[in-house]
Amino acid sequence: MKRLYPIILSATLFACAEPNNPTFGQKPVAKEANTKALHPAIWPLNDTLQVLYFKEKIHNINVEMYLKSEISTIDSTRHPENDTQLLDLFNQEENVVFINNKKIPLKFKIGDSQIMLPESIEFLTHKQKNYILIKLSLVSFMPYVGYDNIAFEIKNNNVVRQLYVQTKDELNHQTTINWLDKQSL
Q1: CA–CA separation, 31 vs 119, rounded Å?
Q2: Per residue in 14-33, pLDDT tens?
Q3: Is there a contact between 164 and 108 (Cβ–Cβ < 8 Å)?
Q4: Mind giving me the DSSP string for 67-98?
């Protein structure tokens, strides 16, 4: 039995190889991930328009998102700092995103944005690219649950690419990596 210990120890060390150095066909995993739960607030811009928004800093990147909204059952005590400018923006657009205080024109339409609730924001690095992922969930009394997932590829603190996907199930870390891999083909 004593002779087996070195073999078992070697096999254990081999099996516990560093996850960022894949062996035997393993897919590379994201080197860094940082996720924060979001706590959005609602703010009436005027008598007919209310905005659901959040402002969060993740990995030294400021992210703000504003959605025209029909949701009214969340925090309404906070208000956006730039609320006077928002009314002008929402005359032209339904959704507004700022990254590092720079307005990012969305290249897609967020489905059902009036009833979407931002749930989390994640910073991750995958294949030497940095991403900010915003996950939104559908607020509904129906049994259907849906998610909108927006990824911004960040380079030198600027957005260089936008990705968007609607999913029936929430993206976990591995499905996020798989989705990003498919987008880079």
Answers
A1: 23
A2: 343 444 433 333 444 445 56
A3: yes
A4: EE----SS--S---TTHHHHHHHHTT-SEEEE
In whole angstroms, how far apart are CA 108 and each of 87, 96, 148, 173? 21, 12, 11, 23
The one-letter amino acid code at 91 reads: N
Check the CA dihedral 19-21-25-30 and report its sign.
positive
pTM confidence score: 0.74
Give me 62's structure tokens.
């400021």
- What is the residue type of 58? I
Contacts of 113 (CB under 8 A, 6+ apart): 67, 68, 69, 94, 95, 148
Structure tokens at 57: 């800093």
Position 20 scores a pLDDT of 41
Residues facing 174 on adjacent strands:
none
Kindly report the backbone phi and psi dihedral angles of residue 12, in degrees, each rounded to the nearest multiple of 5, phi listed first: -65, -45
Low-confidence ranges of the chain (pLDDT < 70): 1-33, 72-88, 90-92, 141-144, 185
